[in-house]
Amino acid sequence: MSEKKVIIKELTIEKFSQKGKAIAFDEKKNKIVITNAVVKDVILAELNKKKHKGIIKGRILEILKPSSFRENPKCKHFDICGGCIWQNIKYLSQLEQKQFFLIDTFQDFINKTNVEVHPIVKSKNIFEYRNKMEFSFSQNRKKTKFLGLIMKGGRFVIDIQRCHLADIWFSKVLIEVKNWWEKYDVDAFNYFNGDGFLKNLTVKGGKNTQDKMVILTTSDSYILTDEEKKDFIDHVLKSIHPDKKISIFLNTQISKKGVKTTFNLQKLYGDEFIREDLNINALGKKIKLSFQIGPNSFFQPNTHMAEVLYATAINYLDKQEIKDKTALDLYSGTGTIAMILSKFVKKVIAIELSENACNMAKENMNLNNIKNFEMINGDVSKVLATLLSNENFEKPQIVIVDPPRSGLTDDAIDNILKIYPETIIYISCNINTQLENIKVLAENNYQLKILHPIDQFPHTFHIENIAILKRT
Ligand SMILES: C[S@@+](CC[C@H](N)C(=O)[O-])C[C@H]1O[C@@H](n2cnc3c(N)ncnc32)[C@H](O)[C@@H]1O
Which range among 65-69, 135-139, 150-154 shows the weakest confidence by mean pLDDT? Predict the structure, then answer.
């Protein structure tokens, strides 16, 4: 008889990791991660015998005493779907946990200096808040087809009938596209061997406009016939009211060994762009801006909380003091923050690496009739170095940064320090890299004044945080 591979143990969940995982410890102080458990749950758990990277993984066999933070998840896929891992925790407890992570991360600053830490701003909606979802195609060995989200802690895709993170229309499209796929003998792309065809289905929608967009991403291993494309369009159209606006794209990834991967984007139906509006209430002014969003454009995924994020950040500036000043929006994406700021300052210069996002920003500038805005395409540190080498460059007094999760590079920080602005507003989706960067800024005459977290992603562990730094 083979040796049993699991251990059964009673455990109390002691904390969450910053990645949202429920952690318990056994009598030997081994770290145990339990899927779908909640802090303060007392559970009977089935544990793997073997440690993986110093951690024992386990699952709940029985909840002996449920935590008071627990709540029944709304989603029927919750137990296995990796889309959101905190749906079984009361929303207020999720917020408390995020606030705790922030304070814990910035503890040294909070202890040593006079940092104002604001309570995390609640998301306006805790369900149906996302304006974009990316679903995956997959097949198992028996060729059963799956279209949905990746399993918790796994690599496999599960079928999704209803995802509550986005409007019900997203799920209707998903079901229609699955129905379309069932009719044809085309395979999902296999990431392990590079075979197969269907990769992702991206669904986007304007929360304030109801415009809709669907993008089917495939490999180049097959070419859909005109009939298959038309049938795809017909299936997608079935998911919407005939009066609604929709754009449908086919995005083919072209991969050749030794050659850089390229994409061939083909519009199958509707306009090139959809529109989303932002209603910002900042510095006593109500601003409405419209944005064209293309198939490749980045846009903050929670529209209503993006409105709150931008307004909260800008409200830390003084309207009178900034009206004759120049601002820099670094890592600007499609220039959303820059366009809002342009209403309050003399001039904004935005820098963004993605050429596509820069082009979209320029379109959006024209759409909103904004003239005091310069968009520069390139790497932040290189563009700043070039600007600084020009002796006529007027150094901006306000710098806003919103970098990717990896944070600011040393060169980017050096160049920001050479500009030496009065105020730095640092927006981040990764409080750990934000902390490391702020430590360097603090060693170079900047004082961290304010931390203001915003909840953009209920039911996930993600935190968006605004930090305000002032030159001392
Ligand atoms: C978190 S997004 C911020 C987008 C924007 N602030 C917004 O709210 O829509 C980060 C942006 O930084 C850009 N980026 C990444 N690395 C960069 C670099 N080295 N230089 C300039 N932009 C970069 C990405 O293309 C992306 O648009």
Answer: 150-154
